[in-house]
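Entry for the shared binder. Reason: the reviewer on the internal report wants the predicted structure included alongside the sequence.
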Amino acid sequence: MLSRRLFDIEVDDEFYTIPASVSSLSFDSPPVKDNAILSVMTPNSKRNLFLDDDDDSGLGMEDHFTSSLPKFSKRQRVDDDNSRCSKRPKVCSDIKVVVTKLEENDDFIADGSRLHTLPTVTGKHSDLKSITSQTLTDVLKGDYDDVISDYKIIDCRYPYEFEGGHIRGAENMYLHETILTLLRQPTKDKQIIIFHCEFSSERGPKMLRFLRSKDRDLNKENYPSLNFPEIYLLDGGYKSFFNEQPKRCDPVSYRPMLHSDHSEDLRHFRVKSKSWTFGEKRRFARKVMKF
């Protein structure tokens, strides 16, 4: 369950450093004036043994020259390790926090930033968050306007089905290529997307997972950030919604995918959908083969 939600994000939280060799140094013992540190390098020492100008160049010393050479060498290696890890462990720590949060509480949205806004039900797909037709109706009525900034209803049925009746305000997107346009649009905080097809059993769930996967790819450098961290599936699909809320459909009609008058249309759009998917698989295979 967790690996599906995280889309196989792998975390590498181990870091290895190779201790640098340190040339022999000797320390002079002149008095310190006005807390200023005099040069402690012998003429034969090289400056490139130490950190860059923008790093800690204080040689790891305190107010007095009490450190011996082995202690200084060890301290420098520790500082080097910390400086190298300071950039990456923060990201790794964030990932671990999100993983733990999502594992302990399934009610968090996919980026772990907050809880789901809409009440969910147990649908056919345990890895997806499903809502009822009544909840979607409440969204359309504006009952959630105070907690969501924007919403989109994505109808994944074929065009002849959509034209035969759809939820008012829904957008028809039955191709993966069209779904990708969502990731090119400006995003808002607390926006939600609701997917569905005729029964929300195959096409809708597949498109939802496709968007989430591409969203992860787009934001892989900023994990766990997502353009659309809060996505839902309409339980029962358009058929269930039409049976319960026909007046919120435009036109007030329901045209099934297997309608006898649209057998040619069904064949056409199935081929179109599969051809695009096949092209994507071939491009992916070529990409994987590049070493």
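Summary line for the report: DSSP finds nine helices and seven strands in the chain.
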